[in-house]
Amino acid sequence: MANKRNKDGSQSDVYKQMYDRQFEYFESMDGGNYNENENDLKFYSEEELEAIEQAKRDAARQAYQDAYLEQYNQSRANMNGSQKHSQGQSKQRAQQNSKQVRSSSQRYGNAARKKHQSEQMEFGNKNEYKNSKKKKKSGGAVVGSFFKGLFIIILVLVILLQLLIFRYINMVNSVETGDRLVTNASMDDSHVKNILLIGSDTRDVSESGRTDSMILLSFNSTTKQTTMTSFMRDSYVEIPDYGWAKLNAAYAYGGAELLMDTIEYNFDVEVNYYVFVNFYSFIDIVDAVGGIEIEVSDEEAEGMTDPLAEQNKYLENESGTDYLTEGGDLTLNGNQALAYARLRYVGNADFERTERQRTVILKIIEQAKTLDLLSLDNFIKVCASELTTNMTKVQMYVLVYQLLFYMNYETEELRIPQDDEYTYGTHDGQSTLDLDFDACQQTIKEVIYN
User: Fold this and answer.
1) With contact defined as beta carbons under 8 Å apart, do 44 and 113 qualify?
2) Which of 28, 32, 76, 166 lies most in the core, judged by the most C-beta atoms within 10 Å?
3) Distance (Å, whole) CA 302 – CA 325
4) Do the beta carbons of residue 111 and residue 104 sit within 8 Å?
5) CA–CA separation, 228 vs 181, rounded Å?
6) In the chain, which stretches have pLDDT less than 70?
7) How far apart are CA 170 and CA 173, in angstroms?
8) Cα(156)–Cα(67) distance, integer angstroms
9) DSSP H or E run through 205
10) How would DSSP label each residue in 337-394?
11) Half-sphere exposure of 156 (CA within 13 A, CB side)
């Protein structure tokens, strides 16, 4: 086809037509010559897709410019040449440029595919690229997991401990405190907790009877000292609302509350809590700890026969059960330990008796510290089920944790009255200990309250 000229003889229209045809061709040549294969199905990131598209645009633009300039120069050099020959050359150039565009697209596509392959991108739980990041974080996560697991274990142990404590507390026979007549003792310190241990031959706390053992257990958190103070049963004292009598009569007159009142009134020391144990309970407690080791003299072994005979009768044991033929370093069972603690007519009568009672209690505590967990659990269950106290469940709960500290306190033993704080007397035909109350109070103040 011949070239057409404008009225003024220019060839601009010819060039414009060539430009439009070439531009349309280059716009469509990528889609028309695209060859799909399995690599084209790869997923690219937005940055990679943008890079590929930009490369295509740049290559197409450059190809177009090269073709246009080449055609323009060729037209100017061969103004009289054939339009067909010119179009053939343009087509050949366009094909070459198309190959360049595809080459550029292929080059960027291959680069993107290599990047994906190096990262091994997969989808779902088998994504190795994602898992590799997890592995990088696993170093710090190990420490966090360890402390998290340790915290959970400690939490479980704490919860189990709380459940055990509440279980033991619920076994204790907790009773309300009855009417008190005396609660104004001057020896009253928040750093000292006093608990009166009452031991009696009666089978139940509700039964009236005389008390064989009255020990004030005092914990001083300032001096870190535990004091076991035995009050002599024959001490002649004034019992509120009942007049003068032996100290052990107070429990028979008015129970634990009157006994606490009597001690406060005569010795001016605060007593708000008590724990009652009858001799049946004492036997079970010693047996639960596996017996206690005590050095028993031949005289004590023989003297234990009478209390053992009495106890066997109550326990419905065969006559002669648990009798001792001689002394020595012996392991006493519950029945024998009770007879040893009740032994009165060997040595210095009641004075040595109170000492034996304190010895038995200390031996029980020492033996309990050596028990394994299962034996300790059984021991605590027996103790809890055999005790009666006026402490509330909340007060017992607090006391359990306080005992963890009290167990490490030094233990001091005390007897009231001391040797120089009494004289022997007789009242209503009974032998008594007539006390120097001022001296007794001073001793209590110095030893317990320091």
Assistant:
1) no
2) 166
3) 7
4) no
5) 25
6) 1-46, 48, 68, 75-140, 202-208
7) 8
8) 81
9) none
10) HHHHHH--SSSSHHHHHHHHHHHHHHHHHHHHTT--HHHHHHHHHHHHHH-EES--HH
11) 6
Q: 10 Å Cβ neighbour count for 113? A: 15
The predicted pLDDT at position 211 comes to 87
Q: How many CB atoms lie within 10 A of CB 233?
A: 19
Would you state the pLDDT for residue 222? 95
Comparing C-alpha atoms, which of 409, 416, 405 is closest to residue 446? 416
Please give the Cα distance from 353 to 212 (Å, whole number): 10
Q: Quote the pTM value.
A: 0.67
Calpha distance 254→179 (Å, rounded): 10
Dist CA 221 CA 178 (whole Å): 28
Radius of gyration of the chain (CA): 52
**In 3D, which of 205, 284, 144, 216 has the Cα closest to residue 448?**
216
DSSP codes joined into one string, 33-98: T----GGGGS---HHHHHHHHHHHHHHHHHHHHHHHHHHHHHHHHTTTS-HHHHHHHHHHHHHHHH
Which of 303, 277, 292, 270 has the alpha carbon at shortest distance from 448?
Answer: 270
Token pair 């040549």 is found at: 29
Nearest to 415 by CA among 227, 240, 195: 227
Interatomic CA distance for residues 360 and 292, integer angstroms: 8
Burial class (CB in 10 A: 0-12, 13-18, 19+), 428: exposed
Annotate 115-151 with b (16+ C-beta within 10 A) or e (fewer).
ebeeeeeeeeeeeeeeeeeeeeeeeeeeeeeeeeeee
HSE, CB side, 13 Å, CA atoms: give it for residue 184. 2
Give me the count of residues in the chain.
450
Handedness of CA 381, 259, 437, 222 (dihedral sign): positive
Q: How, if at all, do strands 328-332 and 388-389 pair?
A: unpaired
